[in-house]
Amino acid sequence: MNHAKYRPFPIFTFKDRSWPENRLTTAPEWCSVDLRDGNQALINPMSLEQKLAFFKRLTEIGFKQIEVGFPAASDTEYNFVRTLIENDLIPDDVTIQALTQSREHIITKTFEALEGVKKAIVHLYNSTSALQRDVVFGMSRDAITGIAVKGAVALKALAEKYGREKFTFQYSPESFTGTEMDYAADVCNAVLDVWKPSGEGKVIINLPSTVEMATPNVYADQIEYMSVNLNYRENVVISVHTHNDRGTGVAATELALLAGAQRVEGTLFGNGERTGNADIMNVALNLYSHGINPKLDFSRIDDIVKTYESFTGLSVHPRHPYAGELVFTAFSGSHQDAINKGMAKRQERGADVWEIPYLPIDPQDVGRGYEPVIRINSQSGKGGAAFVLERGYGLAVPKAMQRDFGEIVTRRSDETGGELLPKDVYDLFVEQYVNVSDPIKFERYKEVSNGRIYVVSEITSNGERREISGSGNGLLSAFSAGLSDEFGVRFDITDYSEHALEHGAKSRAITYVRISDENGKHFFGAGVSESVSKSSLRAVVSALNRKLKTVD
User: Fold this and answer.
1) Distance between CA atoms of 483 and 189, rounded to whole angstroms?
2) Are 425 and 419 in contact (CB under 8 A)?
3) Contact present, 289 and 362 (Cβ < 8 Å)
4) Three-state DSSP class for 238?
5) What are the C-alpha distances in Å from 196 to residues 70, 84, 119, 234?
6) What would the DSSP string read from start to end of 314-370?
7) What is the pLDDT along the chain (552 residues), one digit of tens a residue?
8) Which of 40, 252, 348, 478 could cysteine-pair with 472, CB 3.0–4.6 Å?
């Protein structure tokens, strides 16, 4: 790896910058370029039917501006635009956008494709960067500006022919980030001088990071410089279109918005040439997580993922922000414990504000449930297993018992070498603690009260029926005394809790107990029955069985 053949990005700083002090408070205008920039980057571009279905999904999400293609590039692109228009498939509140190079015959073909449209954005571009001027075109600044101006003149004339009121003009100095900023401002202003935008006919100046070349703060400086140096500024909408070559397309977009950009072009899940475009879903839900209405609906994120994967042939990474299968999932014990406590505290407080450790937004807001939030493997701890049992099965396991069960879960996960599903965790809990009947099985009991409680119980031990009796100041103490006398094991009940498993008259109860032997060792058990008394006695037997089966 010969790093010496690369050189740092030329220094550009806008010393009058103000963007670092700004805050985002509203959503920008959004323009999806999935059907153009995204589609052209696919190994197998979408068919007409797929593009129509994808267009419909984009409108359902809430996009009001959708770039539908480069109609002069191919019959497929042209026919798609015509199909949308001729079949009246464009909602009244949606504006389609068509891309054209700054070449007269291509601009003409673009307007032919748009004939009969109710409203459209015509997106004119030509490359302006120093590298492209030198290596690709071999042209001067003035010559490149001439191409842009000639295209702007042609576009304006054709708009008059087809109905000027239908069209919004957009210009992109392609490879903007590699263009000297003074020249970028000059070429954009030359185009603006042709179009002369007004309050009734605003113009979009799109400043693309066609190739991401520097850190996001540099892009923000470039955007603010242009915002200050563009003519007709009050009638110009500054748009950004970032690519992800350095992996910071979303960050560059957010900083550009701070720097004065008013509009964002991008794609779902960042599809696009090379490393892709800025992910509009990511930017939108970042705003959402700060309490800003993104004006896009991602409440059914899994459905959107399915559409995207089906039509593009691409996969959304399981760690992709907000949309990935695992992004709301914690395996780490400390993370699980914090999430569990956060959920409990929020419920206790009845809080409206979402403040849960490790979960920047509520998974339910994007159509996800809480079940997959905590998943269990050998890295998980007591909090994770407790969360699964409570959320999935209504078991409020006491904290001391959570620690005991957490160790069992870890051992089982180590043995299996993989993840334990929620049912696996529940089955393991039942197997280890609930109504344990080996070597002792509780059958029935009767109680006599005469100052003290006297309990006669029937049990089965190693297949043999036995009757035991004991007395105490309560049912549990009397039953425990009978067990102690029968098996020669001394223990005390040191913790007890219970709750209903279902609602209604015939609901079952679960009881949790902890017993401590003469050596101070603790053993846990649980019992389930429609009778609280029976669930309590079964819990004691379960705990004692765990002691009897433990090898010192």
Assistant:
1) 93
2) no
3) no
4) strand
5) 25, 30, 19, 12
6) ----TTSTTTSTTTT-B-SHHHHHHHHHHHHHHHHHT-SS--BTTBSS-GGGGT--S
7) 899 999 998 888 888 999 999 999 999 999 999 999 999 999 999 999 999 999 999 999 999 999 999 999 999 999 999 999 999 999 999 999 999 999 999 999 999 999 999 999 999 999 999 999 999 999 999 999 999 999 999 999 999 999 999 999 999 999 999 999 999 999 999 999 999 999 888 999 999 999 999 999 999 999 999 999 999 999 999 999 999 999 999 999 999 999 999 999 999 999 999 999 999 999 999 999 999 999 999 999 999 999 999 999 999 999 999 999 989 887 777 887 888 888 889 988 988 899 999 899 999 999 998 767 767 776 766 677 888 898 889 999 999 999 999 889 888 888 888 888 889 999 999 999 999 999 999 999 998 877 788 888 999 998 899 999 999 988 999 999 999 999 999 999 999 999 999 766 678 999 999 999 999 999 999 999 999 999 999 999 999 999 998 855
8) 478
3-state helix, strand, coil in the chain (%, to 5): 45, 20, 35
Domains and CATH numbers, the chain: 26-310 (3.20.20.70), 333-429 (no CATH), 440-548 (3.30.160.270)
Residues 174 and 128: beta-carbon distance below 8 Å: yes
DSSP state of 4: G
Spatial distance between the Cα atoms of 338 and 133, rounded to a whole number of angstroms: 56
Answer for the pair 304, 322: CB distance below 8 angstroms, yes or no: no
Which positions ≥6 away from 344 have C-beta within 8 Å?
Answer: none
Residue with tokens 């490393």: 275
Do the Cβ atoms of 149 and 190 come closer than 8 Å?
Answer: yes
Contact of 386 with 340, CB cutoff 8 Å: yes
Contact yes or no for 265/241 (Cβ under 8 A): yes
Cβ(35)–Cβ(83) below 8 Å? no
Sheet holding 464-472, edge to edge: 440-450, 452-461, 464-472
CB 373 within 8 A of CB 387: yes
Task: Choose among 299, 402, 272: nearest CA to 61.
Answer: 299
Q: What's the whole-model pTM score? A: 0.81
Overall size of the chain counted in residues: 552
Q: Contact 353/395 with Cβ under 8 angstroms?
A: no
Tell me the CA distances in angstroms from 333 to 46, 368, 379, 387, one per residue in order: 44, 22, 6, 11
Is residue 267 helix, strand or coil?
strand
User: Phi and psi of 69, rounded to 5°?
Assistant: 150, -170
Beta-carbon contacts of residue 60 (< 8 Å; ≥ 6 apart): 297
